[in-house]
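queue> holo job accepted (L-tyrosinamide)
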Amino acid sequence: MSGSNPFDTLYDTDATTAFKSKTQEPPLYKVILLNDDFTPMDFVVDLIMSFFRKSLDDATRIMFNVHNDGRGVCGVYPREIAETKVFEVNTHAHRSGYPLKCLMEQD
Ligand code: TYC
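queue> job finished
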C-alpha cells in the first residue's frame, strides 16, 4: 500500500511498484479497421469473425462501430501477432476486390 505514509511519496517503499519499474511488459497494439463506402457489411462481419475469432454478435457490433465512427478496434495483441493480422486482413480485402484497410496502433 502507498499514499497514507508521506515517506512513500519520497521513496519507493512499495515492493510491487519497485518490481514493475524494473520489468518492462512488451507493448500491446490495437488492430483497427477503417470504414469505407464500398466494402459490404456482411463481408466485414465475416472477416471479423474469422480473423479476430469474434462471435456473430460481437463482429456485428464492431462492424457497426467502424461504419458509424470511421474506425474501430477489433482486438489488442503483441506486436508480431498484430502485424500478421493487419497483413492478412489487408491481403484478404484486396484479393476480394474491396478497399477495406486495417492498421495497428500502440495501445
Ligand atoms: N461502410 C460500409 C458499408 O456501408 C461497411 C463497412 C464497415 C466497410 C466497416 C468497412 O471497415 C468497414 N457497406
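queue> The pocket of L-tyrosinamide is lined by residues 33-37, 39-41, 44, 63, 66-67, 100 (CB under 6 Å).
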